[in-house]
Amino acid sequence: MPESAAEQEKIKIDVLKRMKRIEGQIRGIQGMIESGKECSDILTQVKAARSALKSSTKLIMKRYMLKCYAEAIESGEDPVEAMDKFVTVMTNYME
Fold it and tell me: Pfam families annotated for this entry (predicted)?
C-alpha cells in the first residue's frame, strides 16, 4: 500500500473512532437534558463535542487532500479545476 494510501486509511480509521466517541458524547448530552442536569454542565459537554468535531474536521480535510484531490489528478482532471473544487468545498464548510 503506497504511503499516502496507508495514511488515508489511518485517517479514515481515526475519524471513525472519533465519530463514535462524539456520538457517545451527544447521547450523553441528551441524557443530561432529559434528566435535568445543570445548564452549565450541559454546555461544558456541548463545548467538548464541538471541539471533537472540529478536530475531526481537520482530519477529514487532510484526507480530502490526500484522496480526493490526488484521485482527480490521477484521473486526468485539470489540476486547476481540482483545486477549485477543493477550495469550493473548504469555502462552503467555513460558511
Answer: Trns_repr_metal
Rounded (5°) CA angle 45-46-50? 120
Residue with cell 480526493: 68
Summarize the confidence of residues 3-27 as an average pLDDT.
92
> Could you tell me the pLDDT band of residue 54, with boundaries at 50, 70 and 90?
very high
According to CATH, the topology of domain 3-94 is: Methane Monooxygenase Hydroxylase; Chain G, domain 1 (1.20.58)
Is the alpha carbon torsion for 6, 7, 10, 11 positive or negative?
A: negative
**Any residues with CB less than 8 A from the CB of 6 and at least 6 apart, and which?**
none
Q: Could you state, in order of their start, the residue ranges of all structural domains in the chain?
A: 3-94
Q: For residues 3 and 51, what is the distance between their CA atoms, to the nearest angstrom?
A: 29
pTM, entire model: 0.75
59 by Cβ neighbours in 10 Å (0-12 / 13-18 / 19+) ranks as middle
